[in-house]
Amino acid sequence: MARAPYLQLSDISLTFGGDPVFSGLDVVVQEGDRVALVGRNGSGKSTLMKVMAGLVEADSGSVVTAPGIVAGYMEQHPDLSGFSTLGDFAISALEPSETYRVEAAAEGLKLNLSADVTTASGGERRRAALAKLLAEAPELMLLDEPTNHLDIDAIGWLERHLRETRAAYVLISHDRAFLRALTKATLWIDRGEVRRQDKGFEAFEDWRDKIWAEEDLARHKLNRKIKAEARWAVEGISARRKRNMGRVRALQDLRKERASQIQRQGAAAMEMSAGPKSGRQVIVAEGISHRFDDKEIVRDFSLKVARGDRVALVGPNGSGKTTLLNILIGQLEPDAGKVRLGSNLIPAVFDQNRTALKPDETLWDALTDDPETRVRGHADHVMVRGTPKHVVGYLKEFLFDERQARAPVRSLSGGEKARLLLARIMAKESNLLILDEPTNDLDIETLDLLQEIVSDFDGTVLLVSHDRDFLDRVATTTIALRDGKATIYAGGWSDFQAQKGEGEETFAPTSKLKKSKQEKPKTAARGLSFAQAHRLDKLPSEIDRLTAEIAKLEEFLSDPELFTKEPKKFQKASDGLVERQEKLAAAEEEWLELAELAEGMGDA
After folding, report:
1. CB–CB of 455/463 below 8 Å?
2. How far is 345 from 320, CA to CA, in rounded Å?
């Protein structure tokens, strides 16, 4: 006899503040399920998981857990009141004979169980909640962003643990590599609707794009039908009013159908401007060494960073990635050795602690209090790469609505804070982009856009991240830190794993790394790094885009009276044409170089 589902949500409806979050929602989680729960930031993923856990009560519908099945939920903000240490909290639901499970989880997650709860960071509290859940070993685990605040070592340990567990689980995560490695089904929340596909996250993006394409085609057909019916109404209704009022009502129904469709949220309109070029040599580090107390961070390390490089720093938490980053950009003096910075550098910094944002100031103030972007005499405008924009309009480009403009920064989610900080950074010109854990809390669509921006940025990038997929897509050089040793590798994360010696310790589970190598056979066959292969694949569409933009600008400038009537527009279009022609020439040259390299490697 078939076993009842572990968890079943039927006809769930939920409303917050007058806006429906879900309506008529049905979800089933079966024994053995490994489910990715995905959707845009703000789509309701965490809310749905809390409904599953029984922490949020729906307005209507039912939540049924099978008899004998325990569902455990990993809280993002656990209540530790009444406990002295993180360990006391983690073992609170266990028998004394079972506390060893917490110790095992804490070792894998690098959690200090003796840490005082009053001084513990948000990341330590989350890891304590995760260790508690794993030790309790419920039949169904509900995990909301379990990889946040974990380094690559800990992510690898958690990945292995979840692969081996017999429990079912539902995962919310923006870590593509983690989701690809573990999930066998996908729940996708999109505009209040939840769809299920019995394939893991690996197949999600193709599935999503297919559904969106079908939706766009249906909308296009509906618009054409409305247009045709509206033309009939204008041209013939007076002669046929009595006989054809049914057709008029049908037209009204079509318009209501179109109005009732919920538009997809677009991607943030993020854009970076590299500004003036820096010197060819950006950073030259020679024989640098540094210690904190008795801990050696780096010893006798040398590095040259040229204009246009994308350098990633990887390693466990505490290995010194941020310290080395600060040494390389001149914010910290090394104990030995020297660092020379190139000429004409204009840095933009995204720090992992978001220290540039003040919790009690509003989003409006966060954009207008920067002297570099403040527009004199206009408290409602911000200077965006030389052009004044209204604060609300600029916030909308980063997916904030007008009501949030006067809200305090502390009211934002982690993903929203990241977008706000990106808005501040991208308002300015820069040619050295410094990103310390930029991917935390960003949804997959925003991560895609950030990856494209970083890849296309006409400057130099220094990056610290634990997101293996992001590293593969962006980095051209990887510096691996462990135990005071910094080693330089060409390419991104997978390239680093492929190049490291037999005896070198890895930072992540080997099973997924093998899969990563299988996923990019063209890279290996062509002899290109992952980043080079990705760039070669992307360049043709970039060349087509630039060619189309050049054609439009040339057509616009062909008006002989444009210079006389609109001299500013003429100048702006002329500058834009020259800029795109230069970018096209550079893109074509880059494509030729990479294509020749790939062909040469193939011949070899």
Report:
1. no
2. 24
Dist CA 575 CA 568 (whole Å):
11
Q: Quote the pLDDT of residue 514.
A: 35
Which residue is associated with the tokens 């020259």?
Answer: 578
Cα–Cα distance measured from residue 408 to residue 364, given in angstroms and rounded to the nearest whole number: 9
DSSP conformation class of 462: E
Burial of 150 (0-12, 13-18, 19+ CB in 10 A): buried
pLDDT score recorded for residue 516? 37
The average pLDDT across 310-316 equals 93
SS3 state of residue 469: helix
The helix-helix angle for 122-136 and 152-164 (nearest 10°) equals 20
Looking at domain 281-509, its CATH architecture is: 3-Layer(aba) Sandwich (3.40)
Domain borders along the chain are 7-206, 281-509, 532-603
Q: Where would I find the H helices in 281-390?
A: 321-328, 363-368
pLDDT in tens, 417-438: 888 888 888 888 889 999 988 8
Would the CATH topology of 7-206 be identical to that of 281-509? yes
Q: From edge to edge, which strands make up the β-sheet containing 193-197?
A: 71-74, 140-144, 168-172, 34-38, 185-190, 193-197
Beta-carbon count within 10 A of 543 CB: 16
Q: Give the DSSP H or E segment for 562.
A: helix 562-565
480: which 2 tokens?
A: 């691996």
State residue 486's pLDDT score: 92
3-state secondary structure of 591: helix
The domain made up of 7-206 has a fold known as Rossmann fold (3.40.50)
The 8-class DSSP code of residue 527 comes to T
